[in-house]
């Protein structure tokens, strides 16, 4: 490897009937992980050393990539190998066209190594490649080892403890009735003294591989059924600019460059059980609060779109009874005229329960505001609904007022600024 800061992209071509795929990494000593913490994937996105981080998916014109950022300089000295793997979600790799793995220089973007996986059939997981130490340097090797047992089989093969659904214990076999005792029985002997049983060693909880991806066909999920109605739920928006110019601006004869200072703002309209309404957003420094109404807090403003930071919002689900509904949306504050050339992913990570994610559809209208997620408390259920709805404000109407009108929030708005 000519450099230690690397971007590993698992890539494939999407289409009807093509299952989703996920990139993962395992850090090994002697061919096994030291603990479950050496497994980096969508539910455990960063290694404690900071050497490997799961960045997430991008979809650029039907070509999907799932990315791992690897900093070989931060890999602990004991680690000998970093395995780079892929798992199929909802099918086999025989249904995934043009599967490959590319290793890129993270700073320059130049391709350092590439391996195209050919001839897959029933496999649902693959070890595509690995970084390994040799004479004090890091090298990359293509592997192409397939598994028909999915991510679970691959993970357990390297020593990961995977959380499995509880199975009912088998029914005990019927026992024969006791034989008739003899007329006289010798007195029972006292059992031998047994040494005290040491207390059990506490075990780390097993790794959960479950996740939920919302689509047009399956746009909603119950947090109640997922067991995710308490603790903090983090909402992350990350994005990538696909083109240099905004297509809608160019069509209007006013080309506007998509600069690195593209500023997207994650916002939330809320309505509480007592009827109070409001907005959480960086505009006007309305960042909210977690331990008092509205029980929603927005992190600082981000302009990079990186999944490790991005725009983040946290909801305190310990107060879910006080919440009637929350609409999470995103606006373009500056740097572009529409979402037309933007690819974005939304991830909701409850403290308990499976993470929920989805990608935004390609924007085909001159939109500056997009409704992302509607969270509704029905009284007996807490439901997350994928919206992914691009809205076009009328002339002179703010994006906030536009989304308010579309969802009937009924608030009064005045101009504001950061």
Give me the secondary-structure topology.
Layout: E1 5-13, E2 20-28, E3 39-40, E4 52-60, E5 63-71, E6 81-89, E7 100-105, E8 111-116, E9 125-134, E10 137-147, H1 150-157, E11 212-213, E12 220-222, H2 223-226, E13 232-241, H3 247-251, E14 263-272, E15 277-280, E16 288-289, E17 296-298, E18 311-316, E19 323-334, E20 342-350, E21 356-359, E22 369-377, E23 382-391, H4 399-407
Parallel strand pairs: 11-21
Antiparallel strand pairs: 1-5, 1-7, 2-3, 2-6, 4-5, 6-9, 7-8, 9-10, 12-23, 13-18, 13-20, 14-15, 14-19, 16-17, 17-18, 19-22, 20-21, 22-23
Structure description:
With 418 residues, the chain is mainly β. 6% of the residues lie in helices and 39% in strands. It has 4 helices and 23 strands. Strand 9 (125-134) and strand 10 form a beta hairpin. The protein is globular, with a radius of gyration of 26 Å. Mean pLDDT is 83; it is low at 165-175, 244-260 and 303-308.
The poorly predicted ranges are 165-175, 244-260, 303-308
Looking at this structure, what is the CATH superfamily of the largest domain?
sav2460 like domains
Mean pLDDT: 83
The spatial strand order of the largest sheet comes to 11-21-20-13-18-17-16
Strand content: 35-45%
Helix-strand pattern, N to C?
EEEEEEEEEEHEEHEHEEEEEEEEEEH
Question: What is the CA-based Rg, rounded?
Answer: 26 Å
CATH topology of the largest domain: Lipoxygenase-1
* The level-1 CATH class of the largest domain: Mainly Beta
Please, how many helices?
Answer: 4
β-strand number? 23
Estimated helix fraction = under 10%
Question: What structural class is derived from the secondary structure elements?
Answer: mainly beta
Profile the largest sheet: 7 strands, mixed
Number of structural units classed as domains: 2
Termini separation comes to 44 Å
Task: Specify the CATH architecture of the largest domain.
Answer: Sandwich
User: What is the overall shape?
Assistant: globular
Protein name: TerD family protein
Biased composition (Pro residues): 175-201
Domain TerD: 4-158
InterPro entries: Stress/Tellurium_Resist, Tellurite_resistance_TerA, TerD
């Amino acid at each position: 490897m000519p450099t230690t800061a690397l971007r590993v992209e698992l890539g494939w071509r999407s289409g009807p009937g093509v299952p989703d795929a996920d990139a993962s990494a395992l850090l090994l000593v002697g061919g096994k992980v030291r603990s479950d913490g050496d497994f980096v994937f969508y539910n455990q996105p960063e290694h404690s050393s900071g050497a490997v981080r799961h960045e997430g998916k991008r979809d650029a014109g039907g070509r999907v990539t799932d990315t791992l950022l690897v900093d070989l300089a931060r890999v602990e000295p004991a680690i000998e190998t970093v395995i780079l793997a892929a798992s199929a979600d909802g099918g086999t790799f025989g249904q995934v066209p043009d599967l490959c793995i590319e290793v890129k220089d993270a700073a320059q973007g130049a391709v350092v190594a590439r391996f195209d996986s050919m001839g897959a059939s029933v496999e649902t997981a693959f070890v595509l490649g690995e970084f390994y130490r040799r004479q004090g340097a890091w090298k990359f090797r293509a592997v192409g080892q397939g598994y028909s047992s999915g991510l679970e089989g691959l993970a357990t093969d390297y020593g990961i403890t995977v959380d499995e659904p509880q199975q009912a214990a088998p029914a005990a076999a019927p026992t024969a009735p006791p034989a008739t005792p003899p007329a006289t029985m010798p007195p029972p002997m006292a059992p031998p003294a047994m040494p005290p049983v040491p207390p059990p060693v506490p075990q780390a909880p097993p790794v959960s591989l479950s996740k939920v991806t919302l689509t047009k066909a399956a746009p909603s999920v119950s947090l109640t059924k997922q067991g995710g109605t308490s603790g903090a739920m983090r909402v992350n928006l990350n994005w990538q600019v696909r083109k240099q110019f905004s297509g809608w601006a160019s069509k209007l004869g006013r080309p506007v460059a998509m600069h690195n200072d593209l500023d997207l703002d994650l916002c939330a309209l809320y309505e509480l059980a007592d009827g109070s309404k409001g907005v959480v957003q960086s505009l006007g420094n309305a960042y909210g609060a977690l331990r008092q109404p509205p029980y929603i807090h927005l992190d600082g403003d981000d302009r990079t779109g990186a999944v490790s930071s991005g725009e983040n919002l946290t909801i305190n689900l310990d107060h879910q009874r006080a919440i009637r509904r929350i609409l999470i949306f995103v606006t373009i504050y500056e740097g572009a005229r529409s979402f037309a050339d933007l690819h974005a992913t939304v991830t909701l990570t409850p403290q308990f329960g499976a993470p929920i994610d989805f990608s935004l559809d390609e924007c085909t209208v001159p939109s500056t505001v997009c409704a992302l997620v509607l969270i509704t408390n029905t009284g007996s259920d807490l439901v997350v609904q994928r919206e992914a709805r691009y809205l076009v404000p009328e002339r002179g109407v703010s994006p906030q007022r536009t989304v308010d009108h579309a969802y009937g929030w009924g608030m009064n708005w005045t101009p504001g600024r950061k």
